[in-house]
Design goal:
This protein is α/β, with parallel strands linked by helices and about 280 residues long. It is built from 8 helices and 12 strands. The strands form 2 sheets. Strands 1, 2, 6, 7, 8, 9, 10, 11 and 12 form a 9-stranded mixed beta sheet that branches. Strands 4-3-5 form a 3-stranded mixed beta sheet, with no helix packed on it. It is globular and about 45 Å long.
Amino acid sequence: METFTHLRSAGYRSGAQPRFAGTLCDGPLARESERRVARSLERGSPALSNEKIVKRMLLVELPVTEYEKSLEIQTGIVERKIQGGGEDVLLILEHPPTITIGKRGSHSDVIASEKHLAGRGVSVYSVGRGGGATYHGPGQIVCYPIVNLRRLGFRVRDYIHGLEETVIRTLDLFGVRGLRQPKMPGVWIDASHKIASVGVRIRRGVTSHGLSLNVKMTIDPRELIVVCGMSAVHMVNLVQLVSSPVEMPSVRAALTESFGEVFGISLERASLERVVDR
C-alpha cells in the first residue's frame, strides 16, 4: 500500500505518539484503550466525556454486511421510530465492495466498466442520501446513526458538523489532523486528499445513512468512481498517515468514543435482534 509521506507533515503531528495506540496490533496501550472503552459502554457512559450525559443510544456492532441488508435494517428502524418512537441506534459495520450514488451524483461518476466492477465483486446502488458517488469496502468503517434530531437537540447542519467532528476527534486520537472544507462535506487531510465521507438522509426528523472512515482499504476508489465528482480528489487511508500499525477494532472503539463525546450520548451495547424486533 502506498504511504503518503508528504501528507504526514501536514496531517500527522511529527513526534506525537497516537494517544489511542502504542502498537495498535497488540501493544498494552491499545489493549487498555479498548478495555477502557468497553467498560465505559457496559456501564453506559463515554470514556472521556466530561459533559453531563443526558441521552441514551443503543450501539449495534456488525461484521461485514451486504449494503442491501444494511438498508433494510436502517429502513426498519426508521419506520419504527416514525410510527411509535423507540430508542436511537448507532450501527457500526463494514461493507463488501460497494458503490453508492447519492442524490447529487449520477451513474456517469462510475468510471469502471460493468465487466471491471463484476471482476472486483463491486455492487452499485442508487440511494436516497445526500452527496455523490461513494465507495464502501473492507477496511473502511461505516457508522449509521438512526436518531430523532429533535430529541438529540441538533439542527441538520449541526448534526452533519457533529458527524465530521466525530471523525476529526477520532483521527486526533491517532495523532492525525483532520480538516473541513467549505461546502464539501466530509473530513480531509488537505485540499485534495479525503479520508472520510458524510452523507445523510432525514425523513420526518429521523436520520439514516451517516459517515465512512477509510482505515486500510485495499481498493483505490479512484479506480472505480470520480470521487466527489472531482477528478483531482484522492481518497487516503489512516494507515497511510501513521507510523504505528492500525487495527480495525481500535478505530471502531475510537469512533464510538468520539461519537458519544460529540453528541453527549450514553451508548449501550445491543444485539441486532433487539433493535430489529423492538
